[in-house]
Amino acid sequence: MTVTRTQVGIVGGGPAGLMLSHLLRRAGIDSVVVEARERSVIESTNRAGILERDSVRMLVDTGVSDRVLTDGHEHRGINLRFDGVNHLVNFQDLIGASTWLYPQTDVFIDLANAHDRDGGDVRFGVQDTDVADVTGQPRITYTDAEGTAHEIRCDILVGADGSRSITRAHVEGHTPYFKEYPFAWFGIMCEAPPSADELIYAHSERGFVLASQRTETVQRMYFQCDPHEKAENWSDDQIWAEMRARIAGQDGFELKEGPIFEKTVLPFRSFVCEPMRHGNLLLAGDAAHTVPPTGAKGLNLALADVRVLAEVLERHFGGEDGALDEYGPRALRRVWKAQHFSYWMTSMLHSVDGATDFDVKRQLGELSMVVGSERGSSYLAEAYTGWPED
Ligand SMILES: Cc1cc2nc3c(=O)[nH]c(=O)nc-3n(C[C@H](O)[C@H](O)[C@H](O)COP(=O)(O)OP(=O)(O)OC[C@H]3O[C@@H](n4cnc5c(N)ncnc54)[C@H](O)[C@@H]3O)c2cc1C
């Protein structure tokens, strides 16, 4: 067995783990990241795509990459579509903020490249990860692709290992706050031009549709489906017919269609683990919380967590007693706001089996209130573009 000694051992090399390690290196704190998947697999797995204003700043200001500013697309608002008409919620006019469409795959590529450039220790393709002694001197053990066993001894252990976290189980006595939804999202990637300047969040009695985007020639779209739906059971024609039926309206708006090259069913749940710390183990990102994708908060929350975590770790290693105690409560304030926003967007836009005419008309009334009032639209705009740093 090889043994490595480091200050911070990080399980998980997604956005949370890699960004944390990058921020720590800038602060002169060494870390080792272990990641179960191969780099090429993560680079080609489509996930989130919308970055809040502060997430973009973080990538640029901390020297990860400027590429987000050249290859990303600024979005100055979103369309809420209901009763067959698009209603633009213009973030710039309302609050002077934008979001950026920059795929998570690109965020990962930029972070991994920054680690290569700066000499970060990131170990991809590890197996059988385990952790121990989280209240003393924590250890991470794993096996590499050649079958060699490794141990990492650290002062602080960070669980950034996503929604199926193995580290979370070591937060003794935690409360798992959980909400299941009776639907999922059917996600597609297709070759087509964008359907509109801004993303479209569409309410219809047949269910929700999101016309998101990726590039000038590739689009990401979703429609609400049964959680047990099988992606392979849907032909391209069936998918477009369903999307057309949900988008149809008096304004004659149509989605731009094209060949579909990826179909996935995304699970849909809200989850928070409290507290986010046990002894010398701290959780970050999806390991500590997941949100339904309707508010586009998952990736942004992961980055916001590690901004706070890097700051308190710097103070901790600088000798400040009690700095680590601040992390969970500060991170959780934003997490619960994001939980509420994601839940609110979800319940306002999705249809539920057994919904009555009253339920549908109430949703339409709520959507009218949001788009018909500057304060209502600003509430959405502030949440969507991201709250100020904690
Ligand atoms: C399939 C999918 C699609 C999504 N789509 C959207 C979307 O459309 N819009 C949106 O806003 N959000 C979406 N999300 C959410 C968003 O991608 C996450 O919130 C974001 O990735 C969180 O970053 P993270 O670093 O906390 O976790 P992750 O990105 O999940 O990273 C965790 C990493 O830990 C690694 N890991 C796990 N277990 C171990 C172990 N035992 N040992 C070593 N490594 C381990 C994993 O391989 C993974 O790379 C999606 C999530 C998933 C899973």
How would you portray this structure in words?
By secondary structure, the chain is an alpha+beta fold. The protein has 11 helices and 21 strands. The chain has a domain at 2-54 and 103-177 and 270-344: FAD/NAD(P)-binding domain, CATH 3.50.50. The strands form 4 sheets. Strands 1, 2, 8, 9, 10, 11, 19 and 20 form an 8-stranded mixed β-sheet that branches. A 7-stranded mixed β-sheet has the order 6-5-14-15-16-13-17, sandwiched between helices. A 3-stranded antiparallel β-sheet has the order 3-7-4. It is globular and about 65 Å long. Residues 11-17, 34-37, 42, 47-48, 104, 126, 129, 160-162, 166, 266, 285-286, 293, 296, 298-299, 302 line the site of flavin-adenine dinucleotide (FAD).
Q: What are the key terms here?
A:
8-stranded mixed beta sheet; 11 helices; single chain; alpha+beta; FAD/NAD(P)-binding domain
Brief characterization of the structure:
By secondary structure, the chain is of the alpha+beta class. The protein has helices spanning 15-26, 39-43, 53-61, 67-71, 91-95, 104-118, 236-247, 298-317, 323-349, 357-372, 374-385, and strands at 2-11, 31-34, 50-51, 73-75, 77-82, 85-90, 99-101, 121-123, 127-132, 139-143, 149-159, 175-180, 184-191, 199-202, 209-211, 218-225, 260-266, 269-274, 277-278, 281-283, 289-290. It has a domain at 2-54 and 103-177 and 270-344: FAD/NAD(P)-binding domain (3-Layer(bba) Sandwich).
